[in-house]
Specification:
Elements lengths: L4 E10 L2 E11 L4 E5 L6 H9 L6 E6 L2 E2 L5 H7 L1 E4 L11 H6 L10 H6 L2 H20 L15 H13 L5 E5 L7 H16 L3 E6 L2 H7 L2 E6 L2 E6 L1 H6 L1 H8 L7
Parallel strand pairs: 3-8, 3-9, 6-7, 7-8
Antiparallel strand pairs: 1-2, 1-4, 4-5, 9-10
Helix pairs in contact: 5-6, 6-7
Length: 257
């Protein structure tokens, strides 16, 4: 099956030091692909290269058969790529539903003028967005919280609102940057169940993660980065048993194969 996302030989340096160097990752349709690595491995840089917040200095990024590495983030969003950033915050002073409605920017068509003039097209689109946002909240189990102030929700539910906001744009590919960071055990379990449900629904996901146990529980395949390079790729079981991965995380000497 052709990959939905192909990252091929991508490199990016800062001040002459490579954050990622000739990194390649492929994500198949419907797959949950994890990218793990110790601090400083290049995970966040790779994430921003795929999302469009950074531009690659070498290599290519292809999505659904189309090269996207020169497209700005909003163009990638319109193609069906949604992003949940690590530490992304909710919009204070807005309800959970209103927060999620913001995520529909990728599919809106009416311009600023029609919004100011409240033209019929804009009103129809606003009703559609509200409906989509409600369905996204239902999908993450927060339909009953739609009218509550988003900042009043516990952190785990705020994280679910952020996921719903990404889902409101009806993406084909969801990028998750350490979504479990800072969550308590019960919140992490709820998030894991949500991710499993999204995968069961056929959504393709790429998840950047530091926690090996969390990502290997959920992922179909895992790519491991260390010092900006890919050092391993395979199933979760293969990754857990790989001596080079163990060395990267624990600082042990690699046993020759």
């Amino acid at each position: 099956m052709a990959a939905l996302l192909s990252v091929t030989g991508v490199s990016r340096s800062f001040g002459g030091v490579f954050a990622v160097r000739e990194v390649s990752v492929e994500v198949a349709p419907g797959e949950l692909h994890g990218v793990i690595g110790p601090n400083g491995a290049g995970k966040s840089t790779l994430f921003k290269l795929i999302g469009g917040q950074l531009r690659a200095q070498g290599g290519t990024i292809t999505y659904a058969g189309r090269r996207i590495d020169r497209l700005p983030p909003h163009r990638r969003a319109r193609l069906g790529i949604a992003v949940v950033f690590q530490g992304a915050s909710i919009f204070r002073g807005m309800t959970a539903l209103e927060n999620v409605m913001v995520g529909a920017h990728a599919i809106t068509r009416s311009g600023f003028g029609s919004g100011v003039l409240r033209l019929p097209r804009h009103r129809r689109e606003e009703r559609d967005i509200r409906h989509r946002a409600g369905k996204a909240l239902e999908r993450v189990g927060l339909a009953d919280w739609a009218g509550r102030p988003a900042e009043a929700l516990p952190l785990g539910q705020q994280r679910a609102v952020q996921v719903a906001r990404a889902l409101c744009g009806e993406p084909r590919l969801l990028l998750l940057d350490e979504p479990a960071a800072g969550l308590r055990a019960a919140e992490r379990e709820a998030l894991a169940q949500l991710i499993e449900e999204l995968r069961a629904g056929g959504l393709t996901m790429l998840k950047i993660e530091h926690d090996v146990a969390f990502v290997t529980r959920l992922a179909d395949r895992v790519t491991v980065l260390d010092l900006g390079r890919v050092i391993a790729e395979g199933t979760p079981a293969e990754i857990r048993a790989d001596p080079e991965v163990i060395a990267a995380y624990l600082g042990q000497e690699v046993v020759p194969r």
